[in-house]
Amino acid sequence: MMRVVLAQPRGFCAGVERAIEIVERALAKFGPPIYVRHEIVHNRHVVEDLRTRGAVFVDELDEIPPGSMTVFSAHGVAKRVEELAAERRLPVFDATCPLVAKVHAEGRRYAAQGREIVLVGHAGHAEVEGTIGQIPGKVHLVQTVADVATLEVGSPERLAYITQTTLSVDDTRGIISALQGRFPSIVGPDVRDICYATQNRQQAVHDLAKLVDLILVVGSKNSSNSNRLREIGEELGKPSYLIDDAAALEPDWFDGIGSVGLTAGASAPEMLVQGVLDGLRRFRQVDVSTLAGAAEDVKFKFPAELS
């Protein structure tokens, strides 16, 4: 018998639910095709499901026929993307997570105060690219404490920082501390920009690690928040694996393992978690329990035309 402890909370957050439902409501109201710039959320199964229902995922707006119904992904887009959509007469539903949009607004407010902006985040991530493109003026990207040591700014007395919403809380605190040590005048929101769902899921992994021998994280390889969950498990001394679904399970992972913690990133649907449970049952009998954890009741508004 293997004990399996389910994290709570796990899986979809309010921003992901809203983004997916915007595409679903647009398909229902206007019919396919609905064009989506980039993956609506970073989960292969979600994207493939929407594709079968008539969503067309594109990398750039010039792949979309003029006048076609368009959705921006949950990660947000640069101001120039918004302008290009208007030039191509694309009716747009913006599925940017409201918590990402809040970071954009903070960055613009700091820039309006004449400050250079330091963005703590991962280079190349869709959210980071969108945030940089939403802020006028200079934005410096730092990914590690080491980056802070080599950061060159024009005006050390006029600095502000903001953060990507899906970072490791612990790592980000370290980077912020390094920024404050090197630039004592810097202002910013501490780790408040890291979204509530990311923080709750990271705390749940901390709690799981005290109870289990191994941790499984259901999520896609390009999901930032899912990768952070796996990394936290490893940092806490537990073998931790990021898996797309049950097909990725390896029997030898569970040799000598008496208990498994199971969680899912904020863009992974619950059906994948249940599928992993079924996959574990192929190896051994399992006894399933659920961790006590934070209750989430956040709801975000939909665009008026889809309400």
Describe this structure in words.
With 307 residues, the chain is α/β, with parallel strands linked by helices. The protein has three domains: 2-12 and 195-290, 4-hydroxy-3-methylbut-2-enyl diphosphate reductase, catalytic domain (Cobalt-precorrin-4 Transmethylase, domain 1, 3-Layer(aba) Sandwich), CATH 3.40.1010.20; 14-97, Rossmann fold (3-Layer(aba) Sandwich); 99-193, 4-hydroxy-3-methylbut-2-enyl diphosphate reductase, catalytic domain (Cobalt-precorrin-4 Transmethylase, domain 1). Helix content is 39%, strand content 17%. It contains ten helices and twelve strands. Strand 6 (116-120), helix 5 and strand 7 (139-142) form a beta-alpha-beta unit. Helix 4 (98-112) runs parallel beside helix 5 (126-134) and helix 8 (196-209) runs parallel beside helix 9. It starts with a strand and ends in a 17-residue tail after the last strand.
What descriptors fit this protein?
five-stranded parallel β-sheet, flat, 3 domains, Rossmann fold, 307 residues, Cobalt-precorrin-4 Transmethylase, domain 1, four-stranded parallel β-sheet, alpha/beta
